[in-house]
Amino acid sequence: MVNIMGANIFLATALAVAANGAVSGVQAPRPGTLETYKDWTIGCDNRNRCEAVALLPEGADWPDVPTMIRVVREAGPDADAEIWMSRDSHGQAQVNFIVDGRQVASATARDGDARVTGPQAAALAIAMARGSTMEIRSAKKLLGRPSLAGSGAALRYMDALQGRAGTTTALVATGALGTNAVKAAPVAPVIKRMPVSTGGEPPALWREELTSLGRITGCSDAMNGSQQPELHRLDKGETLILVPCGAGAYNFSSVPVIATGIAGRRAFRLATFDSMPGWTKTAGRPMLVNAGWTPEKSRLESYAKGRGLGDCGGSQAYVWDGTRFRLVEAYAMGECRGAWEWIRVWSAQVSD
Predict the structure, then answer these.
(1) Do residue 152 and residue 195 come from a single domain?
(2) Which helix (H) or strand (E) holds 288?
(3) Residues 50, 180: one domain?
(4) 61: exposed, middle or buried (Cβ count in 10 Å: 0-12, 13-18, 19+)
(5) Which of 275, 347, 351 is nearest to 74 (CA)?
(6) Residue 339 belongs to what domain range?
(7) In the beta sheet, which residues pair with residue 346?
């Protein structure tokens, strides 16, 4: 499977958002970064929740029914590892996880998803880190052969970042220290969202206003008959406008603008973020991709695929706090190699 340069460019931008997204008085979020070890990618969020994901080997063909496996572990001394399997399937089946010819764990898959927990999960993670080959089977049917190349290095990275190295809780970097030596999970940021108005559609834009929007966003050419700005009321005096700014085969870009005042004489300003969206190429001009707005949650989302298969890219979700959009979730996958479950690199709690 060939790596897509555009996805890596996107990821580099997405994970550097803190540098150009700070707003005075608000500490800019610092999403986690991803590391790739051969056929495994690992990333952790700001609460030290880590996830390691198996990739297709370089140059491998896409299977008819791909099977994805990942190791997930929360931070803190009491958190155990979990192994997740995912594939396109329906119904219920027993699946077996076999490493170097030995069955290490089993679980029940429902509609293609299975989770291994407890001592089985720890044993399977350790076996994967030390093993050479792995098979996932249901009865006599082979479901997949995830690569184990790089799994040991990825799980060692997880041990180190979560402060488990040298303790009995580590998966790879084990030692004699007890659970008291493992650092606690960092406290999640709390963001207070501003409820938005759900009553009545904002007045349509006048021709002069469309001209002004095109000028301040640089998106005049994209504002044609088939792509018109979306208007969403924030409160009595402010409106969120998503201005179309170009489209590709599967990514549709828009620039978010805040409008104030009465129809025909509205003033416009670019929306501000505590962490600029990942597709933004220049500071001061936020760019969303495949934007979605959920008024009941005051939530604005951006989701950019590195290619049509959706196995690489990044996403961010924000809430409106009354003055700016605040990052509450971010996911990323920088390798276009079969991992359609992206890794969480930022999370925050939302309060009303």
Answers:
(1) no
(2) strand 288-289
(3) yes
(4) exposed
(5) 347
(6) 191-351
(7) 330
Do 207 and 96 reside in the same domain of the chain?
no
Q: DSSP assignment, residue 205?
A: P
- Residue given tokens 């707005």 in the structure block: 293
Are 302 and 203 members of one domain?
yes
DSSP string, 35-98: EEETTEEEEE-TT--EEEEE-PPTTPPPPSS-EEEEEEE-SSTTPPEEEEEEES--SEEEEEEE
| 323 pLDDT higher than 80 | yes
Q: Give 330-352 pLDDT, tens digit per residue.
A: 999 999 999 999 999 999 999 99
pLDDT digits (tens, 9 = 90+) for 244-260: 998 888 899 999 999 99
Instruction: State the average pLDDT over residues 258-285.
Output: 87
Helix (H, G, I), strand (E, B) or coil at 102: strand
Task: Read off the pLDDT band of 310 (50, 70, 90).
Answer: very high
Under 8 Å between Cβ of 318 and 158: no
Phi, psi dihedrals of residue 311, rounded to the nearest 5°: -95, 20
The domain boundary residue, chosen from 155, 173, 188: 188
The answer on pLDDT for 14 being more than 60 is no
HSE value, Cβ hemisphere, 13 Å, CA-based, for 132: 2
Q: Which of 287, 275, 272, 312 is nearest to 31 (CA)?
A: 275
Q: How far apart are CA 9 and CA 307, in angstroms?
A: 13
Q: Mean pLDDT: which of 22-26, 112-116, 226-230, 285-289 is highest? A: 112-116
